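Bug: token stream looks shifted between consecutive jobs. Job 1:
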Amino acid sequence: MATFLYRMGRAAFGRRRLVALLWAVILGAAGAGALTAPAAGDGDTSFMPGIEAQRAFDLIGERFPGSDADGANARVVFIAPDGEKVTAADRRSAIDAFVADVGDGPQVATAVNPFTADAVSEDASTAYATVTYKVKADDLTDAGRTGLEEAVDEARDSGLTVEVGGSALASQPAAGGAAEAIGIGLAAVVLLITFGSLAAAGLPLLTAVIGVGISMCGILALGSALGLSMTTGTLASMLGLAVGIDYALFVVSRYREERENGHEAREAAGLAVGTAGSAVVFAGATVVIALAGLSVVGVPMLTKMGLCAAGAVVVGVLVALTLVPALLGMWPNAVLSRKTRKPHKALTSRKALTSRKTRKARKAGKRGTGVSGERRTGGADNGGTRWARFVLRRPVTVLLACVAGLGVLALPAADLQLGMPGDEAKPVSTTERRAYDALADGFGPGFNGPLTIVADVADASDPEGAASVIAARIGDTEGVVSVSPPRFNADGDTALFSAVPATAPNDERTKDLVQTIRAERPGLESDTGAVFEVTGSTAMNIDVAQALQDALVPYLAVIVLLSLALLMLVFRSVLVPVKAAFGFLLSVLASLGVVVAVFQWGWGAGLLGVEQTGPIMSLMPIFLVGIVFGLAMDYEVFLLSRTREAYVRGERPAQAVVSGFRHSARVVAAAAVIMIAVFSGFVGSGESMIKTIGFGLAVAVLFDAFVVRMALVPAVLALLGDRAWWLPRWLDRLLPHVDVEGAGLTEQALPVPGPAAGDTRPHATVRT
């Protein structure tokens, strides 16, 4: 693989204009597709085949065809001024006028008057009107929305407080807004500090933005056909931007290193893509596998999010392998430091001397001296080497501190509660949240999440009597406030009614109530001859959360086993993968613990703009596990590949750790800071799901990169010594050899491709 990528890097460098043109054409084609494609929908974020709530929902669609369930809706809430009632003559007149105006509006199916539908609170302070439309929210025209907005404004002018919930006027929050821009700006600052060059800092940002642009345009172009939502695109842009910057950073950093070693520009580009690019391919593959693996969970929306994000990662990898060396070919010296731009002496004699010394050291069995790697070879000290020596001098203390610290942070994860936040999680500045609060105050906390009961009475001797018995028994269940009269379909074989809980939709007591109603089912079915199931948004969210919670541990186990196999393949070791998997588990559990503490317990929630705490979004833990797995393997590969390379070349284990940190620590740290900056930008999103995922990923990268990979890993390697790189002979013969860091480029002569058109410089066989 390294040899192939080496040739690819040289080819992209030599044919830079053609490569850049091809990427420009791809970007233009994707952009044109996005502009001409129909608008994407909101997607089905909570539907999951196989669960009871989904089966009941499907039954409703089958037995009640042509219902307005799929159409847009608006629940308009009217609140009288303090001390007044909505039933007063002037207030009632204003509400009647609102219903009449909206009912005559375009695309409106029905507008139900609260005074004829018993939609007035007991104290008459609050009432609500339900407006349904003939089309979905995405298909509402400007005229349809404007008619509702103007009627709302007129009702407000009468002195009523009017808020609107539902999908008709639901706002679509931006992905990250100014906070996201700040994250990208911080990434630029980190790149500038790392490279000390505007061009070197700007190139990873430019290529990452191009990659994300292609990915997002592709998602928009396919959004309508594949049912992709804005949330799906946001997550893809989040991960695509982060890995796009990081992967380009690794290639540019290795290019600069090879130029400092005296290689000419084209050769340096080939070596950078063959070495760092090989690690990019492996790291990107782990991310893609983890994201694509989300499809096995069984949630269509989770599958779409994972596959779209995986596609964005693939684009980022291809950009790093082709467009980055092409742009380096256009400005080969612009990304270099001032020192490196000066002419260098040829390194042929120096490399030959180094090779003879290395062979001599191996023959003599020398691996340096010093427990903490005090013998220095292959470069000057930097922050990475100083930190590595600090850890190597006190590995037990560092190891215990890392495990204890992450363990304490992981404790809140034991109280993880999953759910699907709704309007109650939106900022109070939105009319949806204010409408939710007004309905909860006027009609009770459970009013916003009624349970829908669908009863199949086809086999009952008395269908109407059976439905009435089921409704009455459920109405008598503790925790149920009210039950609506059963409504039958045209064939009379199915009844539909709703039950309003006494508790809020995301309250644990509501979950218990659903289980209690379902537990009463065998007796009711025996007495009536009818069967029933519970659905509705509340029951759907409960069932989805339970199914995902049940799938979390198996998915985590699969990810851990996968990491063991992949790292064993790369590092030819048994204990290094075990250590990596253990560190991955620590970072994931600690990040979940912090998410629970902030978003569920409310610790520091106000600092992040979280106005309503509650259960964690049910999709979040599995999504977090998949992404963090890929990123953890990224850092493991980029950090330890240079360590293993130094060890194989004859250095003692401790000195190999120091050498690995000398070459990789600074770049890995910069990559991690960039990841944290980009993910943190999405914390500013008004969408609860995006805010939670952005925060969780930022914290997970912080823990995994700086605590696990930078501290726990060298401490464990110091304690294991040579045993860290042990692999049974039978397993070594069984495992295929995968050259991730380009070791093959240092062991064989690579025939250099012929000169590119117009390139008259001499070329020769290269040995590194």
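Job 2, same session, no restart:
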Amino acid sequence: MSSSSDQTAQRRLAAVLAADVVGYSDLMSKDEEGTLRRLRDLRRQVIEPRIRSHHGRLVKTIGDGFLCEFSSPLESVRCAVELQEVVAKASAEESLKPLQLRIGINLGDIIVEEDGDIFGDGVNIASRLQKMSLPGGICLSGKVHEEVRDKLPYQFEDHGEHRFKNIGRPIRVYCLLAGMDQSMTSIAARSAASQLDRPSIAVLPFVNLGKDPEQEYFADGIVEDIIAALSRFRSFFVVARNSTFAYKGRNVSVQQIGRELGVRYVLEGSVRRSGEKIRITAQLVDAVTGMHLWAEHYDGVMANVFDLQDQITTSVVGSIQPSIRAAEIERARHKRPENLDAYDLVMRSLPYVWSLEFEGNKEATRLVDKALLLDPTYPLALSLAAWCRGQRIVYNWSKNVQEDRRETLRLAQAAAAIASDDPFILTVLGAALTVTREYQRAQSMLERALALDPNSAWAWNRGGWLRNYQDDPEGAIRHFERSLRISPFDPMAFNCDIGIGCAHFIAKRYDEAAQWQEKGLRAKPRAAWIHRTLAPAYALAGDLDKARDSVGELVKGYPEIRISDIRGALAFSQEVLDRFAEGLRLAGLPE
């Protein structure tokens, strides 16, 4: 015979939205009364009115979270997006640590009790999706995505099928505005709001008009140098190269680029090289109106290509800000290579340098070493050689750690001795000094690099890692966030995600540590080294199944790796290394 509760319960199909506040326990430990007041105000002024306006029903609140149902999947997603946008805006206006939501939405059959509470797999899956979401992000089940994908103007990322605890079947997961607070809603545009007192510019990849496709790297190298020269002017906000190169080969209007990157001006151009002759054309465009402000072409030969680059830079700077004179360009010039073939080799090496993969590291090392044979005093080549050797140590690729450590520091110091005012070279020296655990000197180098180029996304990134190594997770997160703001579409952005994940690990926020590192792994699935810190995050968060799977992936990339190898490669404090080792031990990695 059925119980009375079974008789009064109803079943219906509904879109279930589950959400919680990120880092609630940490906020409560620091300011219990203030956090409760902020959360209460958030519910009354933001959450409840938005749910009602989208025809939803708030089922219940559970500590720092809430659960609601919608008859329409479309309205549930619209509500979630609006909640994230309003919460992000409200938090940005506060001086306190911002409140952030994680949201999961599922469409499924639910059981509705007499008192209005809801149960069933439809609810459980929404809860699992909410836990998977990044701060400021929204995760949808495949069923929800199927209902809304052609009806809403949002971008969805397919994150594949996932198995959740106590759910018998795999669930396909889509992320909408994943990490809204940092990486998906035009970070540069938001950060540019604080930059309106100075000109902002994006230098797009120049089009290679030559017949030889192999010369593509040469056109890219010219743009790289123009960006570097412009970045030296404190009166400019310059978008990093890796973000502007996201538009390479795409037919996108200047106005759209301006909106997405948050800049007033866009520089575009082309390069035509035939033998020793070269023609470079460039034009400066107002990204708001689309009007061409200035255009010029430069003819020369390969022997004076750097003079042509300086002419372009001088013209661009003079067009945007006439008070900046050519003399300042001259003072900002960095050391040139004596051999143009060495320059070619270094330009070819860059994609391999930033790949952070073992085979890429080997190819980059080969090219850079060859460049140094041609020009032993080329500082950029010396710095990149140091960086390649440092990578071997950090990512457990080195066959002789002591030798690579000595060479990393020697090469980085040699480059800085030649070009002591080059921010990239100082950044590499700062990174090399973290490899040798000389943190105070490393900090001094990175501070000098940022003083020379406040727009260096890489210097902000390395500063984030340094703060991680110094047990300053909140400072680290601020540095990584600044790096992401400067270069929102950077293919190296995943390294910031991993850094933020490690910062949360240091702060013992293991769930968030795993979520951020998962995001980095999705962007770089072949980077097995990520599992060195992801597996212990899973383990200490209590998910041993995922921890063991993660160690399995680590061992595929590093068949002989042991906990002691990882401790030797990572530069964290002893206490943090002990916790990484504990998690790896729980996940089944040998000592």
